[in-house]
Amino acid sequence: MTDLLFVITAADHWTLADGTRHPTGFWAEELVEPYRVFSEAGYDITFATPGGRTPVVDEASLAPDAAGGEERAAELRKALDELEAQLSEAAVLDDVDADDFDLVFVPGGHGPMEDLAVDERFGELVRRFVESDKLVAMVCHAPVALLPAFASGGKWLFEGYNLTGFTNVEEAQAGLADKAPWLLQDRLRAAGAVFSAGDPWEPHVVVDRKLYTGQNPASSRPLAERVVTDLAQA
């Protein structure tokens, strides 16, 4: 059986450039769709969050216009309700051992911009996954969690890697680019990544070695399906 560490932000806000707190959390589709894909593949899934806190959904991701209609929004909310017990019992991220898992997956939402972006302990965990030649997958804003991951010599672990994530264009269209303290695409490029931007809001998945990244919510299921396919063929 494949053991998956499913790491979710515990933040309920994102601190904007002016110091105000923008309510957020994880993005519903980015948790629900990959969870379905991994569950259907028979993976043993362990949820973990910083501090073991119960993760909070970004309510904006359940609005009909963002979710894809009233019916889709209701479907996502129902799926999260069914996962409520598991999410409330999330493991403490700092207590997790990379040796116990075959891969790690992180969904986005703006929450990771607040906590995982600066979580040095999680950065160390990611390093252990990479050095053990294990798969690391992140979607939308979640690749921000790669920033605290450094090799033993101090070099950023993903320098020169091809990857993707939520783009500047998408952030602007979402209405937060002008308020953000910094943008994901800019920060990843400045760190040394080769950032690939597909069409806004369309599925876009990038694979480089054992790093799998998806650009936006629409990339959630394609990313998870690519992970499952590649692991099955390994």
Automatic annotation (TrEMBL):
SUPFAM superfamilies: Class I glutamine amidotransferase-like. Gene3D superfamilies: 3.40.50.880. The lineage of its organism: Bacteria, Bacillati, Actinomycetota, Actinomycetes, Mycobacteriales. This is Type 1 glutamine amidotransferase domain-containing protein. CDD domains: GATase1_Hsp31_like. It comes from Rhodococcus chondri. Residues 28-228 form the DJ-1/PfpI domain. Residues 66-93 form a coiled coil. Keywords: Coiled coil, Glutamine amidotransferase. The keyword Acetylation does not apply.
